[in-house]
Amino acid sequence: MKHLFSAIIFVFLILECKAQQFSKRNLLSDFDVFQSIYEKANAGLYKYHTKLEIDSVFSANRKQIKKQTSYREFYKLVWNVIDFTGSCHNDLTYPDSLKKELRQQELFFPIPLKFLNNKLYSTLTCETIPAGSEILSINGADAFEFATEVAKYTSTDGHNMSGKYAFLETGALFFHIYLAYGEQAAFTIRYKDSMGIQQTVLKSLDYKNARENYKKRFVPEYEKNKTADYSFHYIDSSQAALLTVNTFGMGGPKSEGHKNYAAFLDSVFTDLKTRNIQNLIVDIRENGGGNDPNDLLLYSYLTKRNFRENRSAFTLFNKVPLKKYYFEEEENEIRDLEKDLQEEHSVLRNRKYYQNEKANPVWTPKPNAYSGKIYLLVSPFVASAGSLFASLVKSDDESIVIGQETLGGYYGHTGHIPVTYKLPKTGLLLTFSIVDLEQDVQKLSDQKYGDGIKPDYPVEQSIEEYFQSVDTVLEFAKKMIRH
Questions:
Q1: Domains along the chain?
Q2: pLDDT (tens digit, 9 = 90+) per residue, 397-408?
Q3: What is the pTM of this model?
Q4: Cα separation of 123 and 111, whole Å?
């Protein structure tokens, strides 16, 4: 009987969402649940804004809920608050059943895009639009206006914008355009190619065909080659070396992945020391994070100081609040989460549960730690454990950071432990991390609170370099080493 009741509710949810209409009462109820969850469980809620500012954003978006507010519009109102709080670990997703329904409809943008130097470009020849064409407007919206409206659905730390625009080139683009502009039967596109300014109309595609177009997009050779989790080789007649770490997701400290990675690093840095190599490029431009302690282990080979992962880290609870809305993806998830929190966050101070010393040990430099010049390559895709690592490296005086500002924060972030709650009426899934931490970095004049890791040398390629597969950032680093 219980399963029959759940099935009936499920069917009603699909029908109501397909009609894009919920009662105002149900939407207000879900918005209030969302606010309660964030206030009781999200330790980073007031990280970048005062309580008064956050309360005002909640209130302003709640007031916009009307009788005629659609499901998508409600999503946007909730997202406005989520986006304002500023954490790259925040997410809000449609239920799988509704995503499946949407993906079968022809409402998705047909062309993969890339955002470079504040302009939008096509990365696939699509009907009359050649790859590399500059997109000037879409359905009457100026390209930059369009990019900004769509980019807001990528979550970043603090006040970062570079990561939002960078994610326009990913597969997330298609659903984000739908969120921003709703159902579109076609897109009127003004663009500039070698023949001048042109205009055409392209029909919307279903999700499968939009994804097929995305898979066919132009990808530079240097990106195609970044398939391994990590790699190392000498460059420029062995006067310098390149260490690439595309992810820290090799597994935790007891995993085979971590053990293999640890052995790899020890071998690399032993060889660097033996050969007395004075220039090391560390490329983490694809590194969106991963598992502890892979980030800290790498840093212990690059620094001369003792350090910790965090200066401080806290949660708002060690007993899960609002359990009835918690979305358990695994059996006993709540029980295991509470057990871990009570072991690691056992220091209660000012109604916050701080990480204890055992969970945040002091690291020392490795005996074969590198002593030469470090050139760290970063991009807007660097986040979470990737940006934590980048912040530690930038904090050291000997390093040089090249590229573009990272999506993840310099001074800290809200991460470590993700949780998911389900809003009961709409079924929207609300995911965020619950540990707010301040990273073990020094204060720098070019790093404001809320920034990502900013490069010492900002470098962004041109669209011509992109299509010629010129790795502009890496070439810049090599040139610095030669001169």
A1: 1-85+312-355+416-438 (no CATH), 113-218 (2.30.42.10)
A2: 889 999 999 999
A3: 0.93
A4: 8
